[in-house]
Specification:
Helix content: 25-40%
Shape: globular
Bound molecules: NADP nicotinamide-adenine-dinucleotide phosphate
Oligomer: single chain
Order of helices and strands: EHEHEHEHEHE
Mean pLDDT: 97
Number of strands: 6
Number of helices: 5
Structural class: alpha/beta
Strand content: 5-15%
Radius of gyration: 17 Å
Low-confidence stretches: none
């Protein structure tokens, strides 16, 4: 049984950030499932902070993708470390988090939404995070990451409203993958009650994508299929 029976049988998928923990697992599952998978990553020439690299990669796609899964993101490293207090904010870290977590995925969406097929179910899903929910923020901290994911959620929501008019069968989703054992979460796994393997999270997320309907477009949804209020 296909993992994505709600899509047309021969699925063309684009995975952005295919070298990441979750992105690699999603790409592998889709391929095992018989999908034709194109992988974008920095090693294949797609650098999210270089808009021209995104435009070039989109122009070289030979088949319009039914599913675009954006699995890129950053929490720490390269000068970034989640803030514990407002005094730790830096303009550079805020700008870097926004560039990779919000602006990059938005530029990918700008490049691929117009070429995705019409008249059948298509999905553009981007990995966000529960901590990007403003109403769910009870702990504080992680200012740059939280704010950049909130911006991503708002960008997707805004695009979803426009796409509902242009391509009513298309669904845009911001997804929370759970806490997943990857390089991104490594320093922050202590005390986490449930740590998913990338494959387990990927299976959950593909189930959510398969069940998604146009009425859900623009929402932030977790791995279990529950809507997270913005
Ligand atoms: N892991 C978790 O517990 C968790 C929880 C909530 C949300 N998320 C979200 O899930 C997504 C994937 O996380 P993950 O755990 O799979 O992390 P990961 O293993 O660190 O993967 C991150 C991916 O993003 C790519 N990337 C980073 N900066 C980039 C840039 N400037 N240009 C192009 N690609 C770039 C990386 O490419 P390189 O290989 O080239 O570095 C890698 O493919 C992120 O958006 C994260 O915020 C994860």
């Amino acid at each position: 049984m296909s993992l994505l029976p709600s899509f047309q049988p021969k699925l063309y998928a684009l995975v952005v950030g295919a070298t990441g923990g979750i992105g690699a697992a999603v790409a592998a599952l889709l391929e095992q499932d018989g999908a034709n998978v194109t992988r974008w990553s920095r090693s294949s020439g797609v650098e999210l902070t270089d808009p021209a690299s995104i435009t070039r990669a989109a122009a070289s796609l030979t088949t319009p993708p039914d599913l675009v899964f954006i699995a890129t993101g950053v929490l720490h490293g390269g000068g970034l470390a989640p803030e514990k207090a407002t005094a730790q904010l830096s303009a550079e870290a805020l700008a870097a988090a926004f560039a990779i977590n919000a602006i990059g995925p938005a530029l990918v969406a700008r490049a691929v939404l117009p070429i995705m097929p019409k008249g059948r179910k298509t999905v553009l899903a981007a990995l966000s995070a529960r901590v990007g929910s403003i109403s769910d923020n009870r702990l504080g901290g992680w200012h740059s990451y939280r704010a950049s994911k909130a911006a991503l959620n708002q960008l997707l929501r805004t695009m979803a409203i426009e796409q509902a008019r242009r391509n009513p069968d298309q669904i845009l989703l911001a997804l929370h993958p759970g806490t997943v054992d990857s390089g991104l979460s490594k320093p922050f796994q202590k005390g986490v009650p449930t740590l998913f393997s990338p494959e387990t999270s990927a299976r959950h997320l593909l189930r959510v994508i398969d069940a998604a309907t146009p009425a859900q477009s623009g929402q932030l949804i977790d791995w279990a299929g529950d809507v997270i209020p913005f």
